Amino acid sequence: MHPLIFLSGWVALGLLFGVQEIMMSSGESKVPLWYPFASWAVDYFLWGLVCLVLWHFLRASIQRATPRQMLLQFLPLSVLCSILVESSYAAVFQHQRPGNHLSYLARVEHYLSSGLVTDLATFWLVFALFRGIGYYQQFREREQMASRLEAQLVQARLQALQMQLNPHFLFNTLNSVSSLMRSNPDGADEMLERLSSLLRITLAMGQAQKVRLQEEMDVVQLYVSIQQLRFGDRVKHSIQVAPEAWDALVPTMILQPIVENAYVHGISKSLAQGTITIQASIDGDTLYISIRNAGCVPGSFEEVPRKPGVGIANVKARLQLHYGGRQNFTIQELAPGDVTAVFQLPLEIDKSPSSDNAESWYAASSSDRG
What we know:
The protein has 370 residues and is an alpha+beta fold. The chain has helices at 3-24, 34-64, 67-92, 104-183, 185-205, 213-231, 256-265, 303-306, 310-323, 358-369, and strands at residues 210-212, 235-241, 249-251, 274-283, 286-294, 328-335, 338-346. It folds into two domains: 3-147, no CATH class; 184-369, Histidine kinase-like ATPase, C-terminal domain (Heat Shock Protein 90), CATH 3.30.565.10.
């Protein structure tokens, strides 16, 4: 509705009617060629001005008008606008046609008698157009509001699920501390220190819903170091991440619940030595992450799908909220006692500069293992 564009559109419409009049007129017409163009252009320019005033000052009233208001307010207004346009037109064109001399009032009367119905139709077509624009704007606003509410709902759900993880994880870890209090007080003290470090990291993440894979691996490594104090040499760990995958974005605390699940449902129930292997790679526009637990009691995995814990249910819910159907998460027992969880996530790379790198992370994780 920019004035220049709006008025230009009306003038262009008038020129089209001018072309139509010339094509329909006989070749013997004494009217100059320019007259139909000027006549129609001025007529529609005046209507453009009227409509521009209606849009800026009466748009809200037009869009809210009831049938009663249309009859009592806008019908008289349509007649008034028609008179105004024809009066202005008569003032611009001092002759009805070149050579035909009529007084100003006679020209106004002539134009009104021949064009009032057309003018009223023009007014009400514009009225319907403005009303339709109002309906469309309201529809778009409702659509955008619904989209914002949906995004806020998803954000609230994600935050609730993320907050659910901390007490769940804390409860399980404190159980581990409790089990060491009598048998290994120094180990329990060390476990509490590492738990404090882990909680500090999770608090530092704040409300972030996604972090770089490198930051997520820091959390996993700290959690693993806590569990090593409990299980000692019974568990071996291997982390293999492709260099280009370190800056890939993943949902916050998405891997720790799966690693925790490997301990709760696998390592803790078996006396044999176990191995937890975490691998991450990129293939095209997909990030692949696998967590393999080669230390479960054969058959124990069959109980998990029937009674999914808080951790796995939380992971599935958050993946669905983040990615919808664009993600895939599976847990399979490839061989007796050998369970693998696989994430397939849409690839998102964090473009922000990072002071960390894989070498410094490995150095830190090595010192943690020591």
